[in-house]
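Example record

One chain of 365 residues, shown exactly as stored in the release files.
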Amino acid sequence: MKKLIIGIILTLAIAVTAVPAFAANGQDPLDHVVISPDPATVAINGGTQQFTVVSQDAENDPITGVIYLWEVVNLGGTIDSTGKFTAGIAAGTYLNTVKVTASKGGITKYGYADVIVAIPGVLDHVVISPDTATIQPFTTQQYLAVAQDAFNTNLTTNISFAWEVVGSIGTIDATGLFTAGLTSGTFADAIKVTATQTGNLNTKSDTADVKIAVPGVLDKVVISPDKATVTVGGNQQFTAVAKDAYNQTISTVVTYQWSLTGAGSIDQTGKYLAGTTPGTATVTVKASQVNGSITVEKTASAVITVVAEAEEHEGRVPAGWSHGKKNGWDGGSTPPGWSKGKKTGWDGKDSPPGLLKANDEEDED
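Predicted structure tokens for this chain:
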């Protein structure tokens, strides 16, 4: 009996210890912390950065009432109890150097952030624009470059740029003016600029894409309208226009093939005929252009919603009724007594004068 009681007590103890810990305010247990910003770029020798931290449970919901301890563990500067970091005198990248310890309800979690201690005014990167361009063979495109420090401040003095073309697709001069060659295609990272800072010979590079396209070559097809609502049994005319890479309508021979997914039908002129039941359908047009031995094909689609035909009403007359000859209406738009719900002038009949129910024959005058 003693063994049985002891076994039950041990089982209960294990069950109790297996229950997850919950805070007194009903929040789920602390699961992780998130520091921001990460990374942070701070000016050397006294530059500051305020870090913040958010504690979260396993579902990423915020946790309150957490105690935090901030510290710097991998050099780079110092940090106070509020998370304000002050950079030291040595420039560099310090990985996971800012550490925060979060504690609540007997649970402790840690968060880390990187710090880049940088010297303002020192070349950090270069940005080329545009980063992509589409031009015709033997035409030009002007590229520009901006040198910046780690704080994204433009550097305008003691900076030189060197331009080059990667591959035999054209030429570029010292100002960044690119002249395309004859070869057409899309060339990734084909335009390259290298910035050099005088004094420290620090260099940074960036690249841009260029697309050289022959005018009149099929690049896309535009369908109009791109969506439509049609009643059952109704129809909708669609049109398609082929365009080149410069968004110009192609005047050379392009063939179009129309197809349909869903209810209804479409002919090869782009005319859609709805079926007899509501629903949706997708009409697709494929444009084809033959260039020598190569056939270029592009497609576009439009969505069609087929709806039931609405019941027609004549003024305030309900469905299933018609105005007939309007006998006794005295030139009004509704029969006497109709709008007020009275049967004034109805002569004891179930319908007002001059109003016909569906399938009823009209009285003679």
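Notes: The helical segments are 2-18.
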